[in-house]
Specification:
Mean pLDDT: 83
Order of helices and strands: EEHHEEEEEEH
Radius of gyration: 17 Å
Structural class: alpha+beta
Helix content: 10-25%
Strand content: 25-35%
Shape: globular
Length: about 150
């Protein structure tokens, strides 16, 4: 399954942009949950997301609550690689961790899309393709409905 929830954590990058771990409900966000994952996956290339050189299989996931960056609310979407640990549980079962290789933030109003540089912890703004995504989603839905008739 590609969609998963995780808890946001607190961090501060070199440029001073602060994110917070306060639980922020996402009800008012224009795009959230599975749509946020689909939006990032279908609207941007691996190169634009900084994932084109990644050789390991990764999953795109979304946080279950919003995060705040410089006073603005965002939905956090990440690219993670599932890594098997050398340590097992007491019952002998394998344990796994997530290696985050990309972080993306979609503002609650859908107007700002940020990409976090994983080496410098700085944010850059991606071209906003939300309107195009909505248009494509509507066309896909209409096509599927027409085929089912």
């Amino acid at each position: 399954m590609i969609l998963s929830a995780f808890v946001a954590c607190s961090s501060k990058n070199d440029s001073g942009k602060q994110t917070t771990s306060t639980t922020i409900p996402t009800e008012e966000a224009k795009i959230k949950e599975r749509d946020a994952v689909d939006f990032i996956k279908t609207s941007y290339s691996e190169e634009e997301l900084g994932l084109d050189k990644e050789k390991r299989a990764y999953r795109i996931m979304v946080a279950s609550s919003g995060v705040e960056v410089e006073g603005k609310k965002y939905i956090k979407v990440v690219a993670n690689v599932v890594v098997k640990n050398d340590v097992t549980q007491k019952d002998g079962k394998n344990t796994f961790t997530m290696d985050t290789i990309g972080e993306y933030y979609i503002s609650f109003d859908g107007k700002t899309i940020l990409k976090k540089d994983m080496k410098t912890n700085e944010y850059s703004e991606l071209e906003n393709r939300y309107s195009q995504y909505l248009s494509n989603t509507k066309e896909t839905k209409e096509t599927k409905e027409a085929q089912n008739k």
